[in-house]
C-alpha cells in the first residue's frame, strides 16, 4: 500500500467512525491515494461491478477497438451511486493528471494504480476471461 500505512489506517478509522478528517496542503499525496485505493478495495462490489469483469477484460484482450462502446454501455448500466462516484473519481484523476510533469502521474500511471481497484472479478471469473479467443 502506497503512503504511510499508519496514517492511512488512522484516516480510515476516522471515516469509519463517521468523522470527516481534514486534509491540509502538507498531507502526503501518497497517503491520500492510498486511502482512496483502500476505500475502493473495501467495497463489497467493485465500482465497475463483478458482472462486468469478464466482458471488459475479454474485450481488452480480443476486441480492443470496441472497448469504448462496451465501457460506455457498462457505465451507463451502473447503479446511480456507482456512476456518480466513478464520475467524481474520474474528474479528480483528470485533475491529478494535469500535474503529471511534476508528479509523474499521467493518465497511464493513474490507470495502472487505480484501475485494479475499480474492476475486479470473482475468483471464478478469472479462468473464463483469460482463455485465449479461438479463431
Task: Please specify the SSE layout and strand pairing.
Layout: H1 5-16, H2 29-42, H3 53-62, H4 67-76, H5 80-97, H6 100-103, H7 107-118, H8 125-130
Helix pairs in contact: 1-2, 2-7
Residue stretches low in confidence (pLDDT < 50, at least 5 long) are: none
Order of helices and strands: HHHHHHHH
> How would you state the average pLDDT, rounded?
88
> What is the CATH H-level superfamily?
Rho GTPase activation protein
What is the CATH third-level topology name?
Phosphatidylinositol 3-kinase, Chain A
What's the gist of this structure?
With about 140 residues, this protein is mainly alpha-helical. The protein has helices at about 5-15, 30-40, 55-60, 65-75, 80-95, 100-105, 105-120, 125-130. Helix 1 (about 5-15) crosses helix 2 and helix 2 (about 30-40) runs parallel beside helix 7 (about 105-120).
Amino acid at each position: 500500500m502506497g503512503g504511510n500505512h499508519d496514517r492511512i489506517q488512522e484516516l480510515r478509522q476516522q471515516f469509519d467512525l463517521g468523522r470527516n478528517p481534514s486534509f491540509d496542503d502538507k498531507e502526503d499525496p501518497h497517503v491520500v491515494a492510498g486511502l482512496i485505493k483502500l476505500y475502493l478495495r473495501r467495497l463489497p462490489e467493485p465500482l465497475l461491478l463483478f458482472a462486468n469483469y469478464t466482458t471488459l477484460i475479454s474485450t481488452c484482450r480480443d476486441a480492443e477497438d470496441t472497448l469504448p462502446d462496451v465501457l460506455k454501455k457498462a457505465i451507463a448500466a451502473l447503479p446511480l451511486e456507482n456512476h456518480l462516484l466513478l464520475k467524481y473519481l474520474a474528474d479528480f484523476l483528470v485533475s491529478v493528471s494535469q500535474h503529471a510533469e511534476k508528479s509523474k502521474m499521467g493518465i497511464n500511471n493513474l490507470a495502472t494504480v487505480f484501475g485494479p481497484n475499480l474492476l475486479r472479478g470473482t475468483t471464478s471469473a478469472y479462468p473464463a476471461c483469460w482463455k485465449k479467443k479461438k479463431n
